[in-house]
């Protein structure tokens, strides 16, 4: 049974930038993070980019008293980087890995190796069933020419779909993480509108932090100011979203962010600023609270917005489908060229008269073998790329099919919402008319 008293819930979210031997001051920063979390009274901690198992074990040991329950989500080659620490017992956990997530040959970006995903844990908070989500979407490396936009849109689509279907029956929902999207980007709008989740920054009564809630700021020593252009002051890409239910109302009383360097240190916790939300939970009696039905105009407006968002998302995904088709064609063409060269070399080595002609015009044997090895490597790489882009293409086409079905369903629902109920002459009720005819 849910408690009848209101409760306060403090939620912390941070992208830790924990790439060992690459991220600056990685070991020192995790000690700072562990020290902060052990001192502050956070109920739920949502972390991203905790790549190293050593850092996970260190945090578990450091927070064993203040946050005895934790779960580290493993995915991809180096892990999802997602971790949850909690004061409340975690009853269940599940990880959903996004179907598209960048390219393995773009090693300098590395998103593919992380296996980006969304992790969910279930816990009881004061008798209420809470579903807590933590996620990290694909990074945006160039806003003007964003090659990963279709992938990030599909990830946002899968994220909202996963949350809507797994949060049924939950009394409260909290989502935190690094979305790598601006608040008005397509993926963010789609996520908020389809799930009904509310943004702590826009809903809070009190905010204390960076200007406009930025979580990547220019005066962070780990940030290259060129990466923020044309947003020189900073950008907001880290979020804490929440939603209540008929059993509990949720309100964000305050939200704060860190601001640059950690007190007493020459550098901050991470290249991202941390978020700290103070949420108020007010349970209510579902029997007495029926809730006001959504007005026809509000329902129609929401449906129309969802139709537009899904249509816009399909447009971006179709761009991704076209790019994947082009890349697969390029891989096939390159593989064909490698195969032709390899067959030519085999023919020279196997056909007697070609071998005789080659003997009359001597060609270094080492170069001959090297060229054959290069042709074989070219063919092998082309086959691997063709298989990868074929998988990417099918994932994008599958997402487009799902969006097409959703758009058709929403449009049908929208037409039904816009169709006025049948009107009867002089405002008479059909049942009254039948009754009158019987009396006659």
Automatic annotation (TrEMBL):
Keyword annotations: Hydrolase, Lipid metabolism, Magnesium, Membrane, Metal-binding, Sphingolipid metabolism, Transmembrane, Transmembrane helix
Enzyme Commission identifier(s): 3.1.4.12
Pfam short name (any one): Exo_endo_phos
Protein known as: sphingomyelin phosphodiesterase
Residues in coiled coil: none
Recorded topology in the membrane: Multi-pass membrane protein
Superkingdom of origin organism: Eukaryota
Disordered as annotated region, ranges: 410-440
GO CC entries: membrane
GO molecular function, one term: sphingomyelin phosphodiesterase activity
Enzyme class: hydrolase
Composition bias type Polar residues, residue spans: 429-440
Source organism (scientific name): Clupea harengus
InterPro entries associated with the record: Endo/exonu/phosph_ase_sf (IPR036691), Endo/exonuclease/phosphatase (IPR005135), Sph/SMPD2-like (IPR038772)
Family: Belongs to the neutral sphingomyelinase family.
Subcellular location as annotated: Membrane
Gene Ontology BP annotations: sphingolipid metabolic process
Biological or metabolic pathway of the protein: Sphingolipid metabolism; Lipid metabolism; sphingolipid metabolism
Residue spans crossing the bilayer: 336-355, 367-388
């Amino acid at each position: 049974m849910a408690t009848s008293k209101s409760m306060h819930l403090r939620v912390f979210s941070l992208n830790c930038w924990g790439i060992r031997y690459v991220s600056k001051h990685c070991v020192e920063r995790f000690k700072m993070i562990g020290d902060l979390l052990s001192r502050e009274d956070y109920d739920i901690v949502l972390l991203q980019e905790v790549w190293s198992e050593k850092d996970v074990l260190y945090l578990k040991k450091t927070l064993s008293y203040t946050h005895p329950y934790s779960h580290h989500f493993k995915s991809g080659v180096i892990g999802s980087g997602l971790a949850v620490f909690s004061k409340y017992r975690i009853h269940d956990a599940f990880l959903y890995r996004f179907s598209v997530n960048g390219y393995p040959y773009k090693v300098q970006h590395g998103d593919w190796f992380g296996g980006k995903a969304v992790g969910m844990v279930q816990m009881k908070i004061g008798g209420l069933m809470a579903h807590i989500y933590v996620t990290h979407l694909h990074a945006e490396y160039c806003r003007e020419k964003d090659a990963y936009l279709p992938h990030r849109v599909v990830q946002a689509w899968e994220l909202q779909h996963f949350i809507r279907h797994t949060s049924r029956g939950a009394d409260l929902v909290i989502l935190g993480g690094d979305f790598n999207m601006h608040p008005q980007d397509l993926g963010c709008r789609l996520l908020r509108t389809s799930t009904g989740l509310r943004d702590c920054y826009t809903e809070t009564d009190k905010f204390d932090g960076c200007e406009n809630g930025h979580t990547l700021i220019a005066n962070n020593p780990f940030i290259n100011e060129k990466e923020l252009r044309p947003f020189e002051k900073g950008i907001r890409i880290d979020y804490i979203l929440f939603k209540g239910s008929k059993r509990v109302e949720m309100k964000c009383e305050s939200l704060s962010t860190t601001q640059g360097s950690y007190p007493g240190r020459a550098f901050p916790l991470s290249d991202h600023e941390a978020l700290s939300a103070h949420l108020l939970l007010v349970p209510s009696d579902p029997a007495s609270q029926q809730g006001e039905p959504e007005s026809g105009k509000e329902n129609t407006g929401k449906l129309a917005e969802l139709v537009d968002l899904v249509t816009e998302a399909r447009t971006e995904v179709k761009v991704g489908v076209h790019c994947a088709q082009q890349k697969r064609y390029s891989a096939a063409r390159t593989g064909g060229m490698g195969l032709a060269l390899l067959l030519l070399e085999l023919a020279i080595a196997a056909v007697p008269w070609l071998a005789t002609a080659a003997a009359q015009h001597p060609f270094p044997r080492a170069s001959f073998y090297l060229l054959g090895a290069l042709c074989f490597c070219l063919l092998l790489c082309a086959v691997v790329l063709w298989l990868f882009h074929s998988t990417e293409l099918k994932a994008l086409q599958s997402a487009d099919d799902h969006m097409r079905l959703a758009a058709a369903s929403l449009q049908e629902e929208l037409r039904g919402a816009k169709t006025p109920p049948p009107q009867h002459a002089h405002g008479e009720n059909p049942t009254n008319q039948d009754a009158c005819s019987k009396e006659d």
